[in-house]
Amino acid sequence: MEKLTILLVGSGGREHALAWKIAQSPLCGRLVAAPGNPGIEAVAELRAVKATDADGLVALAQEIAADLVVVGPESALEVGLADKLAAVGIPCFGGSQRAAQLETSKAFTKDFCQRHGLPTAAYGVFEDAASAGAFLDTLEAPFVIKADGLAAGKGVVIAPDRAAADAAVVDMLGGRFGSAGARVVIEEFMHGEEASLFAVCDGKTAVLFGAAQDHKRAYDGDEGPNTGGMGTYSPPPVLTQDLIDQAWRELIVPTVEGMAAEGNPYVGVLYAGLMLTPTGPKLVEYNARFGDPECQTLMLRLESDIVPILLAAAKGELASAKPPQWRDEAAICVVLAAEGYPDAPKTGGRIQGADADFGDGVVVFHAGTTREFEGRLVASGGRVLNVCALGADLREARDLAYGALERISLEGGFYRRDIGWRALSQPS
Length: 428
Ligand code: AMP
Ligand code: GLY
Hints:
The strands form 6 sheets. Strands 16-15-10-11-14-17-22-19 form an 8-stranded antiparallel beta sheet, with helices on both faces. Strands 3-2-1-4-5 form a 5-stranded parallel beta sheet, sandwiched between helices. The chain has 4 domains: 93 residues, Rossmann fold (3-Layer(aba) Sandwich), CATH 3.40.50.20; 67 residues, Dna Ligase, domain 1 (2-Layer Sandwich); 130 residues, ATP-grasp fold, B domain (D-amino Acid Aminotransferase, Chain A, domain 1), CATH 3.30.470.20; 95 residues, Phosphoribosylglycinamide synthetase, C-terminal domain (Glycinamide Ribonucleotide Synthetase, Chain A, domain 4), CATH 3.90.600. The chain is α+β, with helices and mostly antiparallel strands. The chain contains 13 helices and 23 strands. Helix 1 packs parallel to helix 10 and helix 7 runs antiparallel to helix 8. The termini are far apart. The relative contact order is 0.13. Bound molecules: adenosine monophosphate (AMP) and glycine.
């Protein structure tokens, strides 16, 4: 079989996990990553083109004659990378700029949900404080206030009382998140446990691509500020097969069909952030990409070759592709973060022990790392390393990951010690 040249876009732990999995494929002849990171460098050639430089990435894809471009972060989709690749005939795993609005505009998604009757929180979209206030009058505390556009996961305020809600509205409309906050979305508060469900889509068809549970708060016990995610595990037992089936029927299928019917076919990962409410799964948000660090646990659990699935999705041929096979084992990912993350992460902290051989089942993915002179590894971002493990069950996976973390050090760094606590506190 002819080998493929693949360009992977991104530089985080999610992309290291994707690179690790893609590089194992017998179909992968050459893997180039832009811009990549020191972990990805072990399995791919790195090229210094940023994920937001759509023209630079198209030029690179043409230069290497890429057979497939795999996009990690939404920032690349938002600048129209998939559209530009389509214009030059290069298959891209990742959605068009318009389709990515399911992630990049909360108002777009809420309006879409309303048009198609998808289960989600009641909401209103406002551009002035007076009409926002009138809508808040109809809701009960706590109040959910969101900046409409992308705000790096920080544009959501859960206000415990009305004064805090009003202050958040004024703050966002006043420009705290720049143009992302020119409109605010106010939502009914949904009660329940959260879980993430993933589908791989080709514009017409969707294929289930696993589930995971994230830990968004910075500190143990779900305390502290919201982050991009401090750790995940997969599968989450709370998301039973019945709930997955319900979310599939009520959310994923109508979303893929609705996007296609509106002339906006959805290609790539459809990541549904779900609230498991007493009346069933409801949508918290959609993302147009793999979760980070959810992806890391999915890659550990994915038994089949990932390349045929990514290629089939990019080419609109998912209906005839073999469905992915998953290992029965549980996977965990613990994020080692830099001091000060998420507010003011301190870069430059020295990392030691990350390159050790931790034995079967443990994989360390790089996120915000860089190599200084003589190959010394230092932190260059908020989330620095992702220590992941696969075990017979979640307990075993957790023990393996935390055992490895004891052998790794990051100056000033920290990690949560309770990843997986919800599943682990259930009677087995
Ligand atoms: P988002 O960026 O929209 O995913 O929101 C970030 C976090 O805020 C979610 O993961 C939830 O924990 C919480 N959240 C957002 N919207 C709601 C809602 N309507 N009800 C309850 N919690 C919410
Ligand atoms: N871990 C949450 C996200 O990727 O959005």
